[in-house]
């Protein structure tokens, strides 16, 4: 629970004496605390690979630089760190793009079937490398929904990639969809897409925090698999822009299901 923070203002007004006003600034304070955390997180996330890079540069400048085997090994590690930084910067740019475009809902007609097909094709090599089956079973005649195609590709890319990364022990990832004629909180029909894995699942106590920026249950594991902790924050923002919703269901040891809800109108 958060405390309410009041800003007190006192002004002397002609003929009315002293006017004291109170304003609840809890939200403003919370937003600026979030911004400070964000900057601290970004700095930390960028500093770690930079420290590794600087260390290896120094090593290569010394006698170890003359040993071809050591050189090759160190350069590999350095390339990995550079890739990691690139991934982080790309995710940060995506996040700032979806935040910057504001509250107007994108309204191009988007064929979700096509979005899912493109996304699955892009992730198939990753699934194969991980020895995972990637199964997609969609009903015929899915409606087009108003939205931003590239952003929706990013939503499903992030969700399916996570299912492959964290649901590995289940051996399979399923993508399905359905349309409901009505649903509380939506005007008109709603398209639901389910991204399901059969991995270790998520302890329910972590679920509410998963969409926070930089939140990762197992930092080391996420980092090893190229994670930045921004993927689900991006998903949440894009869905919010579409006035949609993300619901995360999980049964520890049995797997997780990430469900997106998008209005068809
Ligand atoms: P990351 O870049 O770490 O993957 P995300 O924002 O995409 O960041 O996800 C946040 C965290 O949520 C992950 O680090 C992981 O701990 C957890 N997570 C996401 N998807 C799944 C999943 N399908 N199964 C288990 N845990 C997951």
Automatic annotation (TrEMBL):
Keyword set includes Translocase: no
Record bears the keyword Zinc: no
Keywords of this entry: ATP-binding, Kinase, Membrane, Nucleotide-binding, Phosphoprotein, Transferase, Two-component regulatory system
Any one GO MF annotation of this record: ATP binding
Catalytic activity: ATP + protein L-histidine = ADP + protein N-phospho-L-histidine
Record domain Histidine kinase: where: 41-265
Domain of life: Bacteria
EC number, as in UniProt: 2.7.13.3
UniProt-recorded name of the protein: histidine kinase
């Amino acid at each position: 629970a958060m405390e309410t923070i009041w800003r007190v203002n006192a002004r002397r007004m002609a003929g009315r004496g002293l006017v004291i006003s109170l304003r609840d600034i809890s939200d403003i304070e919370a937003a600026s605390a979030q911004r400070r955390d964000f900057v601290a997180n970004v700095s930390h996330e960028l500093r770690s690979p930079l420290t590794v890079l600087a260390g290896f540069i120094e090593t290569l400048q010394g006698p170890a630089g003359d040993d071809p085997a050591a050189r090759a090994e160190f350069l590999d590690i350095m390339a990995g760190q550079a890739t990691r930084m690139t991934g982080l910067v790309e995710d940060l740019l995506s996040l700032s793009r979806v935040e910057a475009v504001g509250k107007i809902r994108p309204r191009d007609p988007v064929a979700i079937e096509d979005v899912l097909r493109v996304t699955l094709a892009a992730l198939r090599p990753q699934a194969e490398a991980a020895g995972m089956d990637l199964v997609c079973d969609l009903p015929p005649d899915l409606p087009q929904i108003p939205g931003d195609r590239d952003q929706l590709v990013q939503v499903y890319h992030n969700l399916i990639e996570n299912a492959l990364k964290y649901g590995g022990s289940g051996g399979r990832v399923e993508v399905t969809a359905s349309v409901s004629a009505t649903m509380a909180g939506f005007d008109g029909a709603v398209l639901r897409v389910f991204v399901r894995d059969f991995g270790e699942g998520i302890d329910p106590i972590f679920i509410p925090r998963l969409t926070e920026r930089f939140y990762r249950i197992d930092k080391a594991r996420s980092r090893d698999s190229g994670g930045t902790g921004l993927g689900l924050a991006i998903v949440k923002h894009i869905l919010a822009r579409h006035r949609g919703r993300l619901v995360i269901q999980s049964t520890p040891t049995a797997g997780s299901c990430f469900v997106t809800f998008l209005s068809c109108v």
